[in-house]
UniProtKB/TrEMBL annotation, chain A:
<keyword id="KW-0732">Signal</keyword>
<dbReference type="InterPro" id="IPR028081">
    <property type="entry name" value="Leu-bd"/>
</dbReference>
<protein>
    <submittedName>
        <fullName>Amino acid ABC transporter substrate-binding protein</fullName>
    </submittedName>
</protein>
<feature type="signal peptide">
    <location>
        <begin position="1"/>
        <end position="25"/>
    </location>
</feature>
<dbReference type="Pfam" id="PF13458">
    <property type="entry name" value="Peripla_BP_6"/>
</dbReference>
<dbReference type="InterPro" id="IPR028082">
    <property type="entry name" value="Peripla_BP_I"/>
</dbReference>
<feature type="domain" description="Leucine-binding protein">
    <location>
        <begin position="29"/>
        <end position="353"/>
    </location>
</feature>
<comment type="similarity">
    <text>Belongs to the leucine-binding protein family.</text>
</comment>
From TrEMBL, chain B:
<feature type="transmembrane region" description="Helical">
    <location>
        <begin position="264"/>
        <end position="283"/>
    </location>
</feature>
<feature type="transmembrane region" description="Helical">
    <location>
        <begin position="94"/>
        <end position="117"/>
    </location>
</feature>
<feature type="transmembrane region" description="Helical">
    <location>
        <begin position="37"/>
        <end position="58"/>
    </location>
</feature>
<dbReference type="Pfam" id="PF02653">
    <property type="entry name" value="BPD_transp_2"/>
</dbReference>
<dbReference type="GO" id="GO:0005886">
    <property type="term" value="C:plasma membrane"/>
</dbReference>
<feature type="transmembrane region" description="Helical">
    <location>
        <begin position="144"/>
        <end position="165"/>
    </location>
</feature>
<feature type="transmembrane region" description="Helical">
    <location>
        <begin position="6"/>
        <end position="30"/>
    </location>
</feature>
<dbReference type="GO" id="GO:0022857">
    <property type="term" value="F:transmembrane transporter activity"/>
</dbReference>
<protein>
    <submittedName>
        <fullName>ABC transporter permease</fullName>
    </submittedName>
</protein>
Length: 389, 293
């Protein structure tokens, strides 16, 4: 019988280690970490984001990864709770070599921000479009895959000013950090564009009945009303009551309240609802969107707008990584952010309909869509609007 | 438009949403009155009612007249299962243990709903007309008016049942003294079951009305928190307290949201809770228990 002595065992371990060394080097990979809200109040988006991130990474790996190195997404569910998100971050970043991290909320981004800046190891992307994160002075290693919330409303205001100069506008915001985000910038931009903010409504978090708010709307009869800080409720009830009262106000919303399928489920009341969307919808068959064809090949059913956000986030994170590796520099927060900012007139394969640049922390591009109840889809009503052009 | 008409319209809207609060509060009261258990899962049972209606009306394509009672019965069945399977084995345990079980039950219900229907927010098939209703010149949302009428009828029925029906009297007797109720031949465990069934069915009904107005999502159970404020202010064991507390809170929330802004609604709501607890910890209409040593 074979008997292994301690010396023999040590020798075997050493030999295995030496033998595995080159193999490990060959299997070196790029890891993207993520705190994803797969359960909880934001799960509807988290699940879609996870699919989008993973699908782009799958496509990339099928084409050889980055410089021959495969990309791997390491993530865990956070339940959309900041403390859980932080725990996931600590777990993933302590066990993996992570240089891009996808966070699930504004709260997480603001909490982990100082640590990201202190370590200097990585860039933080995520599901938050908070205006506060779009300040390269305060958050030099943050990145938003799209316009921030204020920029979204500014895109809508530019559209309104173009269509109806001097129009009256109502702002309807939920009393949450998310909802209050663009209020100040909205007022400033409206003044700059000659639009008149005639009504400001703040709804309590979780408010269901909106009768009193509709009464306020009936008093001021604005040409446009812009919702921000909501996903679906209480928008359909708001719109239904306003229509029944004969108001001709055009209702608009921002990214998280612009998913096509959720409005299709609402039905007739959704007809005419407009808003800003930074990405093309799943059903868009534009000729210059080959990436959407690939997505439809991979996923035969409609994908939530969060999917596009995740997909494009993975595309831009890996593009920046590729650029840093091509330059021979080390992967750090500084080099990756510089690589992101070097992205100019970049073709997203049609996810966004125009070539994009990342001048600061955001991609300030969007398009205005209008829901067509007969078609059951969001339809574009404007060209792509790039702020600052 | 005159300011008075606007004030009346705002007040009517407040009364309507207050009626919904009262209906949800009734679910707390019915269960507490019989079993002395504060069921913190009422909000989630309310959510489940909305989803059951969604399943029957949108999934199976049943008309509203069939889907509504089925969803309410479904809520009652869940109540029966919970009472027999979870709450009754806890008889004799400390109140805090039972209370924590209901907290866990709420999380389980959210998880189940997310598993079955996903976490996507949804809209219920329309079953209440959206045509505006005018009382004189004052506008009232028809859905809110329907919610008010349903809540008023349901609460009125319960007030009468507790006063005159044998089962209602048995429930009141059980609430007053369980041992004495046993000795009088009242089937106390049966009373517990009925309270849970009726309480959960009421919550499910409130969930359908709430879902018809604001849509459904796994997080809509937070509405239960406002209803909890109602029962604490009105009295945990008082049906009349649920009615008066609900209408009062609805009015106050409506006035606050209109004249101060929505950002003050929760501050005022929970401010009232604190003041009520300091002044009348047993609620406006609740039983003031005096322990004699």
């Amino acid at each position: 019988m074979f008997r292994m002595t301690r010396r023999a065992a040590l020798g075997a371990v050493a030999g295995l280690t030496l033998a595995a060394g080159p193999a490990l080097a060959q299997e070196e990979e790029i890891v993207i970490g993520a705190s994803l809200p797969l359960t909880g109040v934001f799960a509807f988006a988290g699940v879609a984001i996870e699919s989008g991130l993973n699908d782009y990474i799958t496509l990339l790996n099928e084409e050889g990864g980055i410089d021959g190195k495969p990309v791997r997404l390491v993530y865990e569910d956070t339940g959309y709770k900041v403390e859980q998100s932080l725990a996931v971050f600590n777990k993933i970043t302590s066990s993996e070599d992570v240089h891009f991290y996808y966070g699930d909320s504004t709260g997480f981004a603001k909490t982990i921000g100082p640590e990201i800046e202190r370590s200097g190891d990585m860039v933080l992307a995520g599901a938050s479009f908070a205006t506060e994160l779009n300040d390269p002075e305060i958050h030099p290693h943050a990145f938003i895959t799209g316009p921030d919330y204020s920029e979204m409303v500014e895109i809508l205001l530019e559209y309104i000013a173009e269509e109806s100069p001097g129009a009256t506008v109502a702002m309807i915001n939920s009393d949450t950090e998310f909802g209050r985000d663009p209020i100040e910038r909205t007022k400033a931009k409206a003044e700059e564009l000659g639009l008149d903010i005639v009504l400001e409504i703040v709804t309590a978090p979780g408010a269901v009945d909106v009768s009193t708010e509709v009464l306020k709307l009936r008093r001021s009869r604005p040409d446009y009303a812009i919702f921000h800080g909501y996903v679906l409720a209480p928008l359909p009830e708001f719109i239904t009551q306003a229509k029944e009262l004969g108001l001709e106000t055009q209702f608009m919303g921002t990214f998280w309240s612009m998913d096509s399928k959720q409005w299709a489920d609402v039905g007739e009341a959704a007809d005419g609802y407009m808003g800003v969307m930074p990405y093309r919808y799943y059903h868009d068959t534009a000729e210059d969107a080959p990436m959407l064809d690939k997505i439809r090949e991979m996923r035969g059913v409609y994908q939530h707008s969060g999917y596009m956000q995740g997909f494009l986030s993975a595309m831009l994170m890996t593009e920046a990584t590729k650029r840093v590796m091509a330059s021979g520099e080390e992967l750090t927060g500084d080099t990756l952010k510089a690589a992101l900012n070097s992205i100019q007139d970049f073709d997203t394969g049609g996810i966004i309909g125009v070539p994009i640049s990342i001048p600061g922390n955001s991609v300030p591009v969007g398009r205005v869509y209008r829901f067509d109840a007969a078609a059951g889809e969001m339809m574009p009503v404007s060209d792509w609007i790039t702020l600052g052009d | 438009m005159s300011d008075w008409l606007f004030f009346i319209e705002v007040s009517l809207a407040g009364l309507g949403s207050g009626a919904l609060l009262a209906l949800a509060a009734l679910a707390f009261v019915l269960i507490y009155k019989a079993t002395q258990v504060v069921n913190l899962a009422v909000g989630e049972l309310l959510m489940l009612g909305g989803y059951l209606f969604f399943a029957f009306a949108a999934g199976w394509g049943l008309p509203a007249w069939a889907a509504v009672p089925l969803a309410v019965i479904g809520g009652g069945l869940v109540g029966a299962v919970v009472e027999r399977g979870i709450i009754r084995p806890m008889l004799g345990e400390s109140a805090i243990s039972v209370f924590m079980v209901t907290v866990g039950l709420g999380s389980v219900l959210i998880g189940l709903v997310e598993l079955i229907w996903t976490a996507d927010p949804r809209t219920l098939p329309a079953f209440i007309s959206t045509k505006p209703l005018f009382l004189g010149e004052a506008y009232v949302s028809r859905k809110i008016a329907v919610a008010f009428a349903v809540a008023a009828v349901v609460i009125g029925i319960f007030l009468l049942l507790f006063r005159f029906w044998r089962g209602g009297v048995a429930l009141r007797a059980t609430a007053t003294d369980q041992a004495a109720a046993y000795s009088c031949g009242i089937n106390v465990p049966g009373v517990f079951s009925i309270a849970w069934i009726v309480g959960c069915a009421t919550a499910a009904g409130a969930g359908i009305l709430l879902g018809a107005i604001g849509g459904i999502s796994p997080t809509m159970g937070v509405f239960g928190l406002s209803a909890l404020v109602v029962v604490i202010v009105g009295g945990l064991d008082s049906i009349l307290g649920a009615l008066v507390g609900g209408l009062a809170l609805g009015l106050i929330q409506s006035w606050t949201g209109t004249y101060l802004g929505g950002e003050y609604t929760n501050v005022v709501t929970f401010g009232i809770l604190i003041v009520a607890l300091m002044i009348r910890p047993y609620g406006l209409f609740g039983t003031h228990e005096i322990e004699r040593l």
